[in-house]
Write a structure and sequence with these properties.
Shape: elongated
Largest sheet: none
Number of helices: 14
Distance between the termini: 86 Å
CATH class of the largest domain: Mainly Alpha
Number of strands: 0
Strand content: under 5%
Length: 266
């Protein structure tokens, strides 16, 4: 009987460890005391099962709100996305991805201080979440904190060396700081990790242009246009490179094409 009792205690303790986020005391001691107090083990099991079911239901509801937030985010309905993320956080305040997503929505609404707070919280909850560092870096950029942005991009890359967009974003930061060679090095690394992105070739072409290497810049803009024939920025940038080389007819054609794709280039 004693052996069976200990087995029941051990089993229930294991269940409680798995299903309880935090426990103030030893689960086995709590269960043993409960059973010794005269409460049948079956009732304890039923109680735990109800707790597990409630926990799963809450997690499912939080995930539902998170998914609805992501859907609204994807279609540009950022305010609605934030409302859904708020609901998810009320149910599960310890999920770093929800704070990261809500921070992204705040950032897209130009509420950069609020975004920064969410990324801080996400990193507090998960110091190894590379995406949160990258997104916090973008908030720092928008607030004019360029060196802090570089530090966060460094951390994102340290955590995930294959993170192409972290290299790209750090490269763009170096461009804004006038460190064009360092930018070029980062765009090279980004393209090594994602050779199918028109944006990466466009950005590297910009770095080449800043370094006065206009033929190499045009080669990258050609590649960007090959990957995405409807990418107006690549035509516009190639037009500037042609202009620098004195090829005015080619430049005018590219500027006209960029304008036809997006009126902001007219």
């Amino acid at each position: 009987m004693a052996t069976r009792f200990k087995s029941v205690v051990a089993l229930l303790a294991a269940v409680m460890v798995v299903t309880t986020a935090a426990c103030a005391s030893d689960p086995a001691s709590d269960i043993e005391a409960t059973i010794e107090a005269g409460i049948p083990a079956t009732m304890v099991v039923v109680g735990i099962e109800k707790g597990v079911a409630a926990t799963k239901a809450a997690q499912s509801l939080a995930e539902e709100h998170l998914n609805l937030g992501d859907i609204n985010f994807a279609i540009g309905a950022y305010e609605e996305a934030i409302k859904e993320y708020d609901k998810a956080i009320q149910i599960d305040p310890d999920d770093p991805m929800t704070y990261t997503s809500r921070g992204g929505a705040y950032g897209n609404l130009s509420q950069h201080e609020a975004a920064l707070q969410d990324f801080d919280k996400a990193i507090e909850l998960d110091p190894k979440l590379a995406r949160a560092y990258r997104n916090r870096a973008k908030s720092h950029l928008n607030l004019g904190h360029h060196q802090l942005a570089v530090q966060d991009f460094d951390k994102a890359i340290q955590l995930d060396p294959g993170y192409a967009h972290a290299y790209n974003s750090r490269g763009a930061t170096y461009i804004s700081l006038g460190e064009n060679q360092r930018a070029l090095d980062d765009f090279d690394k980004a393209i090594q990790r994602d050779s199918g992105s028109a944006m990466l070739y466009d950005n590297r072409g910009t770095a080449y242009g800043r370094l006065g290497e206009n033929q190499r810049a045009i080669h990258d803009f050609d590649k960007a246009i090959q990957l995405d024939p409807g990418y107006p920025n690549a035509y516009n940038n190639r037009g500037h490179a042609y202009r620098q080389l004195g090829q005015d007819a080619e430049a005018d054609a590219d500027f006209a094409k960029a304008c036809s794709l997006d009126r902001q280039y007219c």
